[in-house]
Design goal:
Length: about 300
């Protein structure tokens, strides 16, 4: 547990002070059998992972979950492709279907319970991503058909609960992760896109501290004061980072040979589910946070001074 050190719309950004690069660890995620692309989105404290893959024979996106030795189970929660975006310690999984449509308003949100039963969240179209372990709450984004915009929300046990309150004037919002204290992370579009931690009068805005950054999104959070996110540079490439919230320290998440790197979720030990154009991995700032079989990779740090 941790307390957010922020006031109303306090911001993590401003000038950055570079810190010497440290060695992090990348553990490869095995490809799903008979697949062309395998993407990992979620990891729980038992190092079970969840994600999706494109079938080599049918070209359809299927959800999967399993262990890092490649022992996977696949499933479809509906037609048109399925993505499993988050996995809790008890095995509950959240995500969305009709993933290959590319249209948020056409993608039903689901939760699959540990007994294999799938519940479509009634009336909610969009995406469910992070799920926490103690109360089963999950973070998601729903399409508001009345106002024609994306709205961050929190659900539980396969049902919509409430929207995430963002006091800043904005055009759209997304909720991507939640921890056991109910602290939510996501992003809102003002423009540009800004990351956030918390909600209401305890919401902290996060912008990656670089003059090349054109947008930032927070994707996952654990109970130890760590969060992960993504930022887009001026060339349109996506990069990722680990944020230590208390110290405002960003650690770059790098993948050798990758142009685009996406950090999606972080477990209690600090292992991060990462996908990229060079494959999917678990990334850990320290080797002891990851299972064996990883390779060292540079992890530069930068300290951000609040605005």
């Amino acid at each position: 547990m941790f307390a957010l050190r922020c006031a109303l719309l306090g911001s993590v950004a401003g000038l950055a002070v570079s810190i010497a690069a440290q060695a992090a660890v990348l553990v490869p995620v095995p490809a799903a059998p008979n697949s062309t692309v395998t993407t990992v989105f979620g990891v729980n404290d038992r190092y079970q992972i969840a994600g999706s893959y494109i079938g080599k024979d049918d070209g359809i996106e299927h959800a999967f979950f399993g262990t890092l030795d490649g022992n996977y189970s696949s499933f479809d929660a509906g037609d048109g492709g399925t993505e499993a975006r988050g996995i809790a310690n008890n095995g509950d999984i959240v995500g969305f279907t009709n993933s290959q449509s590319g249209v948020t308003s056409d993608q039903p949100v689901f939760e699959m319970f540990d007994n294999g039963k799938i519940r479509i969240v009634d009336g909610i179209f969009g995406r469910a991503q992070g799920i926490e372990n103690t109360k089963g709450r999950f973070a998601g984004t729903r399409w508001d058909f009345n106002n024609h915009q994306a709205v961050a929300f929190v659900g539980k046990r396969g049902q919509y609960r409430h929207d995430v309150r963002i006091p800043e004037v904005h055009q759209a919002s997304e909720a991507n992760g939640i921890n056991s204290a109910g602290v939510v992370v996501g992003d809102y579009f003002r423009p540009p896109t800004h990351g956030f931690i918390g909600s209401g009068n305890k919401m902290q805005t996060v912008d990656y501290p670089s003059d090349q950054a054109t947008g930032t999104a927070m994707e996952g959070i654990n109970d130890s004061g760590q969060a992960v996110g993504q930022w887009v540079d001026s060339a349109g490439n996506t990069h990722s980072f680990l944020l230590d919230i208390a110290s405002n320290t960003f650690t770059d998440i790098n993948v050798s040979g990758a142009t685009n790197v996406y950090a999606w979720n972080i477990n209690g030990a600090g292992a991060v589910a990462v996908s990229s154009d060079a494959g999917s991995f678990l990334w850990c700032k320290k080797a002891r946070q990851c299972p064996a079989g990883g390779a060292a990779v540079a992890a530069p740090e930068r300290k951000a001074n609040p605005k």
